[in-house]
Amino acid sequence: MSNNEKGTDLEPRSSGADVDQAGAAGPERFDNPGLPTHRDRATDRDPAAARRAERTVIVLFALSVLGTIGTVVAYIMVPTGESVENMRLSNLLLGLGLFLSMFGIGAAAVHWAKTLMSDHEQAEDRHPQRGDAETRQAAIAALGAGAEDSGIGRRGVLKGAVVSAVALAPLSVAVPLVGELGGDWNVSKFRHTLWERGRRLTRDPSGDPIRAADVTIGSVFHVIPEGLREGDHADHWIEEKAKAVVLMVRLDPADLTEAEDRRDWSYEGIVAYSKICTHVGCPVALYEQQTHHLLCPCHQSTFDISDGAKVVFGPAKRALPQLPITVDDEGYLVAQDDFNEPIGPSYWERLK
Questions:
Q1: How far is residue 238's CA from residue 84's CA, in Å, rounded to a whole number?
Q2: Full-model pTM
Q3: Which domain holds residue 270?
């Protein structure tokens, strides 16, 4: 049986009028059916419903105003540098304030459009971009009619609510931004950390000093400087920790590839590197023992711990800064000096 006998259409379709199943020619175009019949809303029929909708919109705009004020107050009143709890509380309050500020305006605008503004369907024929004077006058009249239909002119409280919410909303972003712009721009502090000659390496977060004899081959330690919460830096120890965190690994010395000027920076296969990725500053802490690779979870930059923490994959462009270490008279691991270069990603005053 042929394909045509099976009912398969192998012939090209006609470019003329469509043909129905009976073989009769169909119309080449259909008449414009026009717009569907308009259905009035409850707010169109019932003035009480319109007033309720107006009050709802006003409440939503007022909620936006309260969110903006709350954001500014939270930014001013809740410091972020004193403790982790303060940081979490500040982030929570700022997030809630920003949400209410933006959500209030958005929800109010949507409810206003759905319940109070005109919902009559409109159709306009296409025309040249610039119309004649008569068309332009008609457009202006249509815009005026739309503004009148929205009710903003005769609803004073609603007008005040929308103006207040829209005018204050940028403050929820501008105040924190200006506060940060006016903050500490001394980037030179990134050149140095708490590490210095003789400062012991301690476990994070306990602060217990680490003996070299307790570090076995393949083991990984998250390290912070001894006395992190003491002395002049006690009030801002979180910032100091963020700069000074270290990942320490012990390898078989035979697996280490070390530059000539760094051969005394490790101790019997124990090496220490900054945990701050040189791409955008994420914490690098995923260590793969078999390959000696250290992975940044943010953008997958990969560093080879056995070869100077050089980049082997990903967007990072520089090796992790190394912390030169040795042991003291009691066998505890100590720093020989600060990192060999500024930690973290690039900035405009950095030479490397």
A1: 8
A2: 0.53
A3: 188-335
